[in-house]
Write a structure and sequence with these properties.
Elements (H helix, E strand, L loop, with lengths): L19 H20 L10 E6 L5 H12 L3 E5 L12 H11 L2 E5 L3 H10 L4 E5 L5 H15 L6 E5 L5 H13 L2 E5 L8 H14 L2 E5 L2 H5 L4 E4 L11 H9 L6 H7 L4 E4 L10 H10 L8 H4 L6 H19 L1
Parallel strand pairs: 1-2, 1-3, 3-4, 5-6, 5-8, 6-7, 8-9
Helix pairs in contact: 1-5, 1-13, 2-13, 3-4, 5-6, 5-13, 6-7
Length: 331
């Protein structure tokens, strides 16, 4: 664990800001932290530091991962939920950043527009970490890539197919991450659900140097052929109006990850999902959607979710290890 703080003082806002080598170093550091935690080896490298977690959008995995990672590193945490912060309401983003960075050693933000976390970083005197915005979800991608590397022993040359609505944070961030790490990324969706063309062009340019590739495909069979990783996410994101459910279900159902889709990818392929997933009726929203539209599963079937090819819970655990790496490297 030599030179752990190789990003000291830097923000972690989106993977576009990092080199492939820096992303790889964060993944390696996370793997080292994971091994130490499994063996019970203390690694309180940030003892006595304090961090603030701003959550304008609530979360299970992100909050728990940041808090446990901080405690493992010896830090103290203040959690600010949507009702506990005045950011953008009574106090400007700039003022919030200047106040919090005078008290804390690091600030996490999970919420809405990317411009908010970028502004926080602009005015903050301490590192700012993106826990999720509408446009990017970089800590999730680090966890995904650690999980993929654990399974396949490499990242370069891995084919990852993202099924469904690829216009927002997960589609964007996976595409950027794959471009940076020399992976082959395919967004498989109706054309209206493809990522923004300017970001696609940027990722294609990055891929020229990394040895990866970026492709957009509306044909499921063509997209999934030879896939190592089949990835999906919910069809309606937090904060979107209920009215979009009917349209998304109608247009994205052909892109559901089911046994037929996984059979095209092959037995060696794995299934991934950033969670939560609508794969059964055991949630309030799942039951409501069933009552309205008569479907039991959405973006992934329960059969695939619970199959041996599914590595979603290994992926979820790795959120904590990779977030720990981000905090240690920047602090």
């Amino acid at each position: 664990m030599n030179n752990v703080n190789f990003l000291k003082g830097k923000d972690f806002l989106k993977l576009l800001d990092l080199s492939g080598d820096e992303i790889g170093a964060l993944i390696d550091l996370a793997a080292d932290f994971k091994e130490k935690k499994k063996k019970g080896i203390s690694h309180k490298l940030c003892e006595g530091k304090n961090i603030a977690l701003i959550f304008e959008k609530t979360s299970t995995r992100t909050r728990c991962s940041f808090e446990v990672a901080a405690y493992d590193l010896g830090m103290h945490v203040t959690y600010l939920d949507p009702t506990a912060s005045q950011i953008g309401k009574k106090e400007s983003i700039a003022d919030t950043a200047r106040v919090l960075s005078s008290i804390y050693d690091g600030i996490e933000y999970r919420g809405f527009g990317q411009e908010i976390v970028e502004d926080l970083a602009k005015y903050s005197a301490v590192p700012v970490w993106n826990g999720l915005t509408n446009e990017f979800h970089p800590t999730q991608i680090l966890a995904d890539f650690l999980t993929i590397k654990e399974r396949f022993g490499k990242l370069r040359g891995i084919k990852l197919v993202y099924m469904g609505d690829a216009r927002y944070n997960m589609g964007n961030s996976l595409m950027v991450g794959c471009a940076k790490m020399g992976m082959d990324f395919v967004a498989c969706a109706p054309k209206k659900y493809f990522p923004d063309q300017s970001l696609v062009d940027k990722c294609k340019e990055i891929s020229k140097n990394s040895g990866g590739s970026i492709n957009l495909e509306d044909n499921v069979a063509k997209a999934l052929k030879g896939a190592d990783v089949v990835y999906t996410d919910v069809w309606v994101s937090m904060g979107e109006p209920d009215e979009v459910w009917e349209e998304r279900i109608r247009e994205l159902s052909p892109y559901q990850v089911n046994s037929a889709a996984m059979s095209i990818a092959g037995k060696s392929a794995v299934f991934m999902h950033c969670l939560p997933a609508f794969h059964d009726l055991k949630t309030k929203i799942g039951a409501e959607i069933n009552a309205k539209f008569g479907i039991n599963e959405m973006e992934v079937t329960d059969e695939v979710f619970e199959s041996e090819q599914s590595i979603v819970f290994e992926e979820a655990e790795n959120r904590m290890h990779t977030i720990k790496a981000v905090m240690a490297a920047t602090l």
